[in-house]
Amino acid sequence: xxxxxxxxxxxxxxxxxxxxxxxxxxxxxxxxxxxxxxxxxxxxxxxxxxxxxxxxxxxxxxxxxxxxxxxxxxxxxxxxxxxxxxxxxxxxxxxxxxxxxxxxxxxxxxxxxxxxxxxxxxxxxxxxxxxxxxxxxxxxxxxxxxxxxxxxxxxxxxxx
Length: 160
Known about the structure:
- It contains three helices and nine strands.
- By secondary structure, the protein is an alpha+beta fold.
- It has a single domain (7-155), classed as Nuclear Transport Factor 2, Chain: A (Roll), CATH 3.10.450.
- Strands 7-8-9 form a three-stranded antiparallel beta sheet, with helices on one face.
- The relative contact order is 0.16.
- The model has no long low-confidence stretch (mean pLDDT 86).
C-alpha cells in the first residue's frame, strides 16, 4: 500500500477492502479479504486491510473483468462486468479472440477512472495451451499520469 498518496488521489481512485488472490498465476481467483495489524487504544489487533488509490483501481479493474456482464444487476449495477466469459466453451479462433478483445474494451470503457487504454493485446500460442489466450493490458490512469499493466489469462475451455 502506498502511504504517500495525496487525499485527492485517494478520493479519485477510491478505497475498498484489499483482496488477496490465493491462485497466484495471474488468474486472480480464489479471492479473500486481506488483513493488517492495527493499533487501537495502545493494543495491537488484526483488522481488514484497505486498498487505496492506485491499488484500489487496479483491483477494481481485475474484479470488473473477472465478473460476468450483468451479474451485479440485482445490486443495482446492470452494466458491470465483461462479456468475454460468455466465450467459454467456444473454439479458440481468430474471430473469438477478437471478440475477447472487444468485450474487454467494452468493460473497461465503463470504468471512469481510466483515462486511456494504451494497449489491449490478445496473445495466443497454440504450443503452450491451445485453449488459452493472455489478455495484456496497459492502462493510463487519469489525474496522476500513471500507467498500470498486467496480464490476465483466459481459457476458452473449462479448466479443471
